[in-house]
Amino acid sequence: MTVFENYSSGVKTNRDAWVYNASKAELSINMRRMVSFYNAEVMRYQAACTANSTEKRPDVDEFINADNSKISWGGNLKNDLMRKKVNSFQSHRIATGLYRPFTKQHVYYDGNFIERTYQMPRIFPNGETKNRVIYLSGSGNGGKDFSALACDVIPDLNMQHSGGQCFPLKLYEPITPKDNKQATIDEQETSPVVGDYTVRDGISDAGLQHFKDAYASDAAAQNISKEDLFYYIYGLLHSPDYKTRYADNLSKELPRIPAVKKFADFMAFSTAGRALADLHVNYESVQPYAVQYEGGAIEHAAFTPADYRVEQMKFAKPTNKGTGKSGDERHDKTRVIYNSKITMVGIPLEAYEYVVNGTPALEWVMERQAVTAHKDSGIVNDANLWATETMGDSAYPLKLFQRVITVSLETVRIVRALPRLDI
Question: Does residue 289 surpass a pLDDT of 70?
């Protein structure tokens, strides 16, 4: 019995530095530059083929200019080159992606420059699509770091640093001119149409019926919806009992989704899963945790955008050697140095208990809210530009850390209240 109609890995770009950026303007510049260079290579290849019309075509690997400061080649671009296909930059292809947990980036969502989109076009056909997915960490890590994270934007293949698969709430089927018109009208009675797509449920009919049958003696269970089941799965995948019992399975294959014995427990998992998903998807709008600041409260009115600039957050060193408050003599995780002017203190250690694929959610934020430079291309990815250009708030990275404290504490609370796994 298959619960989901379809699922997919996140997008595999093979050129992250080029197709992702915190700045939409910088992403546009980088992609225009790479597209222009690629097209010049197509013209050069075409000329070489014409000049050698009676001979074998030039070997692509030997022919191309492999200057990594100009382009990041891959199988798809090499194949396009051999077909002499000219590409163009299209600004409407820029979408929002979840690059890492709790870190969004602008992504150039174009199959010509993303090495593998897998089934993602049926889940997020474009940057405007509304959907939710449950993204699972990849297998092969012994099951110990297995985690699930809900998101509502295009996820990267390595969003959790381990590959993985995402399972959608909805699926989008393109409506093409060759589709039977009457069939399309009939489908609309049960499947809404959004733009050029028919929207279908990601949960299969058989999957839903399996769970209704499991609670056949409870009349209320016959009203279970596919959304109820979707969030039941998300809640179940957060259960410590579930992770322990199925650790071996989780290290080798996709999760098995058992029905718990009691319908009341099913609904408890579903309610908790919905609350967790809302929390994890809407992390940018939760109330920031009220941290304290070293030296006293920040006078926000007196701060300029430059005062909130972050280069790389780091943990403070323990004030008394050998007595690190985090249990780690190297770090005091109750204190995070944001920049030279701002140090957050009073961070609850309990917040670090919310872990996504082996790393606390807060440490994902610390890793990605930074300024990085790609070694080969020299492309700079500056998280402060997402703050100012997209969010209109130079203090966004600081507030994001505090919001993820709230998310982490609430996640820990909800998970602790889950029913015991009785199947």
Answer: yes
- Cα Rg, the chain, nearest whole Å: 24
DSSP β-bridge partners for residue 19: none
Q: Beta strands of 374-414 (E only): which ranges?
A: 380-382
CA distance 231 to 277: 8
Q: How many residues does the chain have?
A: 423
Distances (CA, A) of 338 to 50, 71, 205: 58, 34, 49
Strands 154-155 and 193-194: unpaired
Q: Could you tell me which of 76, 136, 157 has the C-alpha nearest to residue 112?
A: 76
For range 267-276, the mean pLDDT: 98
Question: Would you state the structure tokens that stand for residue 345, as one six-digit string?
Answer: 């203190």
Angle made by CA atoms 197, 202, 206, in degrees to the nearest 5: 130
The yes-or-no verdict on residue 326 having pLDDT over 90 is: no
Query: Residue 203: its pLDDT value, please?
Result: 98
Angle, CA 345 vertex, CA 341 and CA 346 arms, to 5°: 165
Selection from 124, 15, 20, 19 nearest residue 75 by Cα: 15
How far is the C-alpha of 36 from the C-alpha of 40, rounded, in Å? 6
Other CB atoms within 10 Å distance of the CB of residue 121:
18
Full strand arrangement of the beta sheet holding 154-155: 20-21, 103-108, 94-100, 154-155
Q: Could you identify the residue written with the tokens 């897998």?
A: 118
Give the tens place of pLDDT for each residue, 292-303: 999 888 877 788
Quick count: other Cβ atoms within 10 Å of Cβ 62? Answer: 7
Residue type, 117: T
User: What three-state secondary structure class fits 409?
Assistant: helix
Exposure class string for 94-113: b at 16+ Cβ within 10 A, else e = bbbbbbbbbbbbbbbbbeeb
Report whether 207 contacts 1 (CB < 8 A): yes
Q: Residue 383 in contact with residue 22, Cβ under 8 Å?
A: yes
DSSP tag of 184: H
Both tokens of 89, joined, read 């930059």
Query: With bands split at pLDDT 50, 70 and 90, how would you rate the model's confidence at 55?
Result: low
